[in-house]
Amino acid sequence: MQPSQSGRLSSQAMAFVLAGGRGSRLKELTDTRAKPAVYFGGKSRIIDFALSNALNSGIRKMAIATQYKAHSLIRHMQRGWSFFRAERNEYLDILPASQRVAENKWYLGTADAVTQNIDIVDSYGIKYVIILAGDHIYKMDYEVMLRQHAETGADVTVGCLTVPKAEATAFGVMGIDNDKRITSFLEKPADPPTIPGDDAHSLASMGIYVFNWDFLRDLLIRDSEDSNSSHDFGHDLIPDIVKNGKAMAHLFSDSCITSGLEEEPYWRDVGTIDAFWSANIDLTDFTPKLDIYDNSWPIWTYSEITPPAKFIHDEADRRGLAVSSLISGGCIVSGSEVRNSLLFTGVRTHSYSALEKVVALPYSQVHRNARLTNVVLDRGVEIPAGLVIGEDPEEDAKWFRVSEGGVVLVTKSMMDQRAAKLG
Sorted alphabetically, which CDD domains does this protein's record hold (predicted)? Predict the structure, then answer.
């Protein structure tokens, strides 16, 4: 049985979302937008998952710190997340790096992004702060983590993924004792510590931290005065608390939200082209690893007003059809085949074209007789008639970005450069 809203710790908490990352591993997908603003799942942006988790957990005070290429993200927040009302004691503030502290001082690290906005956090009158990364895909009830934090009297509670030991070398890894107290924090260790009683798995940091605000406030001020600090939670503050205070691990499996269809806790960092493509295409599976149809834990976002998707033509070689695919509003599949693909809002595919395992971002177009396989189309890309992508890696690499896994990323600038060279 869920506690009443008045008894929930989330009513005394705020979410501080770090959404300023460059997302450079996503290559040209982040040329015009920050990683948290990258599209995902047919309708959403990546940041919608962290914010929806907070909202669904009962948190009504949020702040989003932005920095690099923030316009697309800020516009999305204004359009999709403007329903918070101050008269209900609800707040959502967008905090760009605006040189509030010094004229030459942008956000120097994840901790500094909070330090520069201490006065704003003070104004919320909250007891707990949840620090969140704005660039991961997962469903989690933060109330469960808040309760563990309060019950254990921790200085910090760190959200942790259980990962195979061999994969833990890519993460910040927690060593813990039998009471889940963190005894060590190692960044990308060659030989990761394992979970007590389980030599095959390690605990990796999710970049989610719960603090009492008064404790964190003092810690941030001390850190800001340390010239040797990089002012980062993972590099500076968390290791210091592990050494000198009480840091506790919270297992993601304890608070992960599942609908009953997911076989295991779902968390993805879609920070590369391959990971982004794969996570989107996975949604087309008969039983996807992530259930985005779960109405009990909705993913809130900006809902554009669009007509229904439309499928036209029904001839032997010119039939508008989609199989094992997600087709968003405003799409027109005209005499073309779409298989195991995900089409965002307003995508158009024209007669005799074929799409297989394609992630097509909003308002892209595929003209007649084109064939696409294992492709990501950026927003607004037009694929000319007859073009074949995804079947000849050498030819694709002349014009487009081909990932290590063989996924082809196509952007408008790439198409423009190709058109200019071919005349």
Answer: ADP_Glucose_PP (cd02508), LbH_G1P_AT_C (cd04651)
Rounded-to-integer distance, Cα 158 and Cα 210, Å: 7
Tens digits of per-residue pLDDT, 214-268?
A: 999 999 999 999 999 999 999 999 999 999 999 999 999 999 999 988 889 999 9
Q: Does the global pTM surpass 0.70? A: yes
Q: What is the DSSP-derived secondary structure letter of residue 198?
A: B
**107 assigned to a ligand binding site:** yes
- Write down the architecture of domain 310-422 according to CATH: 3 Solenoid (2.160)
Q: How far apart are CA 149 and CA 336, in angstroms?
A: 53
Q: State yes or no: 143 annotated in a binding site.
A: no
CB-based contact 34:46 (threshold 8 Å)? no
CB 325 within 8 A of CB 285: no
Is 187 labelled a binding residue? yes
CA 256 to chain centroid, in Å, comes to 15
Domain boundaries, given as residue ranges, for the chain: 9-284, 310-422
Superfamily for domain range 9-284: Spore Coat Polysaccharide Biosynthesis Protein SpsA; Chain A (3.90.550.10)
**Cβ count near 310 (within 10 Å):** 14
